[in-house]
Protein: Amino acid/amide ABC transporter ATP-binding protein 2 (HAAT family)
Amino acid sequence: MMLRVRGLTVRYGRLTAVDGIDLDVAAGRIHVVLGANGAGKSSALRGVCGRVRPAAGTVELGGRDLTGRPAWRAARAGLVLVPEGREIVAPLTVEENLLVGAYANRSAGHRRRTLDEVYTMFPVLAQRRGSPGGLLSGGEQQMLAFGRALMADPAAVLLDEPSMGLAPVMVERVLGAVRGIADRGIAVLMVEQNATALGLADEASVMERGKLVLGGPAADVVDDPRVTQAFLGVA
Ligand code: ATP
Structure:
């Protein structure tokens, strides 16, 4: 497994937001964690990448223990978060936003090649490379956030609700781009409220009140009555 999470627990004071979850993601695979608002999905990703220090549990990337490392060190080791809300720096240009992601990528030649790859993958970013990031549409900003993550040359990426706030046609494009990320051999852990994301998953889990209540090959999870009732609106 590229990314291996065991017993991850995140607490805010007395509230346990994430309660001892296990997750595995292999290189080149997409693991989707589906959960309603407030289930603890963002907290789980923050605990994995070191934005919050887990109260318990372990995080390993390619066999290397990253538990409790601050997020910038995890990113340097190849574990990168694409946060909820995207966190584009509005006044910086598209290209400058991409280069923000490359700060850990020390060779200028490699940086240039990765930038070219990102532009090939997302032609809209190449077209708008000189525009302020804040002027892009929501879907374009999500592509920019993906591109910025790729600039760090990650082994695993954590995607926090990339479809949020996007029109259905954009959701499809953004989710399509996620497969492109995995096809680079990157392990993708994506949390979503939008059950459409299951169509893209290799593995899937369902999170409720801080716990994973269901998990396995995506095809099995999609057919589970708990998923059809709660997320697909089928009685
Ligand atoms: P959403 O889809 O709204 O982002 P989520 O599944 O990602 O939901 P979290 O944001 O992880 O859920 O929240 C899980 C629980 O932890 C909620 O009860 C939330 O109120 C609480 N919580 C999240 N962040 C904090 C924080 N910084 N301090 C205190 N409580 C928090």
